[in-house]
# Entry
Amino acid sequence: GRPAGTYVSETGDGELILAPEAGAEFFGSALPSTWLSVPWGVGGSSTVSNGMLRVDGARAGTCVFSETGCLEQATLLPGRSLEFVATFTGDPFQHAGLAQTLTGAPWAMFSTQNGGSLWARSLSTTGAVQNNELGNNLLGSPHLFRIDWHADRVDFSVDGVLRVSQPVAIAGPMRPVVSNFNPS
# Structure
C-alpha cells in the first residue's frame, strides 16, 4: 500500500505526492464523485474524457457530501494553493480558480472576463476587486496555472512564473471551481 497522507497523481505517470486537501484526476468518463456540475442554462454540461474535464455552458467544482447528496459548499480557508492545467479559448466568461458558486463574492480566478484576453481576478466579500490583464498569448494552448491564496493577498502564477500578486484579503470560504458560461 501507499504511505498515509499521500496521493497518486496522474500528472505524468502516477507520481506519489503529499495528499492534497482536494484532488481530482479526470480519467474515465464521469466526473469524480467529489465533484458536481451545474448547468448555467439549457444544454450546459461538464464531460470527462481522455484525462480532461470539458465544461460547456456549466460550472463544475468540488462538493461536500450530506444526507441529501453532493452539495456546492465551500470549505477552504486562506493558506491554500490551487494548481491546474487548463486551456482557455478566449471566449467570454471562462473562469477557473477558487470561489463559492461564481454567482457572487468571493473569488480568486483566472478568467477571460469579456473575452479576447486572460485576466487574474479577485473579489472579496467586502467588495475589494482586483483585475489584472495577462494578455492573449496565454489563450488557445494548455498552461500550468497556480493560485496561492494568502490571508492578505492572492498570487497568480503561470507556467511556474509569478505573474501578479493582488493585495486583497479574502476570508473565504472558497473551493475549486471551473466555469464556461456560454455553450460553444
About this structure: The radius of gyration is 16 Å. The chain has no helices and 17 strands. The mean pLDDT is 89. The CA atoms of residues 18 and 96 lie 23 Å apart.
